[in-house]
């Protein structure tokens, strides 16, 4: 599909803060398909539908000394390649997370571990995030922000539900979870999340829906380490409270991640 490719020189775009300022300014335009920044050369390439008039006017209001260098019709081959690469990466992390959702949920129930159950639900939330992100690839900036916003609200709902379950277990009587299962499954999940994070960082995308995914995956690495620690404490103290505490912390981290995603989506 053909679109317009416009090249701007922005004389005062010196660092990533100007880049974020420009992204925030231009995300109101649904006709913009993609933005590519070259900060050392102070250049911005925009793929968009329609004319550059509104885009250029918006950039001028930032007073960064913007000049339109060229506009041409383009199929955007680089963008297509980037989109295909994004799809492959997201499919990989989606399958990893959905597999570990099932694995952790199964062993969380068998071992009576709230930490594993909480992490499994977080994996499910992430799978939902990645599935939504697949719909965002190649879409407009407004669509990508809407996808990120939906992601944030879903995670917030999951976090609140999980916290209620943790409170229920605190006031009730629950058998001590199997610390061995907690540690082994969490180590496997930690390795899987580290691989997912590596794949996402290797992609080097700065688009909002990819950033939302990286927030989720970074949280998962921290959570896995926490569940391993809780398993060790369960064995040492012969108490289920460390498991419940890590479960509560997991859902607080999920809620915090939801807040960051909603803030990022604007």
What does this structure look like?
- This protein has about 270 residues and is of the alpha+beta class.
- The chain folds into two domains: about 5-75, Alpha-Beta Plaits; about 80-265, Alpha-lytic protease prodomain-like, CATH 1.20.1510.
- Helix content is about 70%, strand content about 10%.
- The protein has eight helices and four strands.
- It has helices at about 15-25, 55-60, 75-110, 115-135, 140-170, 180-205, 210-235, 240-265, and strands spanning about 5-10, 30-40, 45-50, 65-75.
- It has a four-stranded antiparallel β-sheet with strand order 2-3-1-4, with helices on one face.
- Strand 2 and strand 3 (about 45-50) form a beta hairpin.
- Helix 3 (about 75-110) packs antiparallel against helix 4 and helix 4 runs antiparallel to helix 5.
- It starts with a strand and ends with a helix.
- The mean pLDDT is about 80.
- Please provide the count of β strands: 4
Q: Which fold name is given in CATH as the topology of the largest domain?
A: Alpha-lytic protease prodomain-like
Our estimate of the beta-strand percent is 5-15%
The CATH architecture of the largest domain:
Up-down Bundle
Number of helices: 8
Main sheet strand line-up:
2-3-1-4
Structural class: alpha+beta
* Shape field: elongated
CATH C-level label of the largest domain: Mainly Alpha
Give a short summary of the structure:
With 266 residues, this protein is an alpha+beta fold.
Spell out the key features of this protein.
single chain, 266 residues, 4 strands
């Amino acid at each position: 599909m053909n679109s317009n490719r416009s090249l701007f020189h922005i004389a005062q775009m010196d660092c990533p803060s100007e880049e974020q300022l420009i992204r925030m300014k231009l995300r109101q335009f649904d006709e913009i398909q993609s933005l590519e920044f070259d900060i050392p050369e102070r250049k911005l390439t925009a793929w968009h539908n329609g004319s550059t008039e509104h885009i250029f006017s918006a950039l001028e209001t930032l007073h960064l000394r913007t000049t339109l260098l060229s506009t041409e019709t383009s199929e955007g081959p680089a963008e297509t390649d980037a989109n295909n690469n994004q799809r492959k990466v997201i499919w990989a992390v989606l399958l990893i997370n959905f597999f570990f959702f099932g694995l952790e949920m199964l062993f969380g129930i068998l071992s009576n571990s709230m930490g594993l159950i909480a992490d499994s639900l977080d994996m499910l939330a992430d799978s939902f995030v990645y599935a939504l992100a697949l719909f965002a690839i190649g879409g407009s900036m407004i669509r990508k922000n809407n996808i990120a916003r939906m992601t944030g609200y879903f995670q917030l709902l999951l976090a609140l539900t999980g916290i209620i379950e943790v409170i229920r277990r605190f006031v009730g009587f629950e058998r001590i979870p199997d610390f061995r299962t907690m540690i082994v499954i969490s180590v496997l999940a930690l390795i899987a999340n580290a691989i997912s994070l590596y794949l996402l960082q290797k992609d080097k995308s700065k688009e909002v829906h990819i950033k939302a995914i990286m927030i989720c995956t970074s949280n998962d690495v921290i959570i896995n380490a926490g569940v391993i620690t809780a398993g060790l404490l369960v064995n040492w103290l012969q108490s289920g409270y460390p498991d419940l505490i890590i479960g509560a912390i997991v859902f607080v981290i999920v809620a915090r991640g939801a807040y960051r995603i909603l803030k990022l989506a604007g």
